[in-house]
Amino acid sequence: MDGSCKPVEGASKKATDAPFYLAQGDECALFEAASANNLPMLLKGPTGCGKTRFVSHMAARLNRPLYTVACHDDLSAADLIGRYLLKGGETVWVDGPLTRAVREGAICYLDEVVEARKDVTVVLHPLTDDRRILPIDRTGEELEAAPGFMLVASYNPGYQNILKTLKPSTRQRFVAAEFDFPPPDLETDIVARESGLDSARVRSLVRLAVKLRALKGQDLEEGVSTRLIVYAATLIAQGMPVERAVEAAMIEPLTDDADIKRGLLDLVVAIFG
């Protein structure tokens, strides 16, 4: 296996023009199998390792509409399902992104689902078993998912605590896939492709990222993401000095502690000279 997601046989131009994604294993085949069999999918992995890009890639690859919801502390079930709004002097019902996906047979992606309020998971349960229904209490509807509807959710297990976690009764409703940062050679290829920077210089950025990730749980709360390496490489490709690009894209986003930043910058000097 070469790590790439091959286009589906007979795919349209839209599918073959899917957002770039370089697979680490069989995640593309797993997603396709889950989609074909109406199974919801849970993606687990650190921030910035490619989960969202993967879903965008697969939605385009399968020629399916995609509704992406960035979950947060105030996100409620009503935000997903919909609500009555005042329009032109009339009160009208407006579907939320989850309801639109259910009606249209689209993919609904809930990014960092554990950040949402607890009532969200209650809404998801009847959609993630053989019923595949969405009860809408405000309108009295019991909406059956259209063919093709797929629920995908993601979260970062590294951020879990006693207050923010998925209950086993929720996790066990999904097919799950573990994501992580790519191996250095693969990550170098991804960053070079995304940024336009030559592989030789990208390789040093990836080497730095690996060292920074080793500090997770010690000086750093989280390791540097592939996304941040792309940012740094993009700045360098545009002519910014390496140390300044790395500071702006790979050091400053990780910590506000002045002493830790000085230590990390010393590591940058050690790698880049």
From TrEMBL:
Keywords: ATP-binding, Nucleotide-binding. Belongs to the CbbQ/NirQ/NorQ/GpvN family. The gene is nirQ. It comes from the Bacteria. Residues 41-174 form the ATPase dynein-related AAA domain. One of its GO terms (molecular function) is ATP binding. Pfam families: AAA_5 (PF07728), CbbQ_C (PF08406). Residues 187-270 form the CbbQ/NirQ/NorQ C-terminal domain. This is Denitrification regulatory protein NirQ.
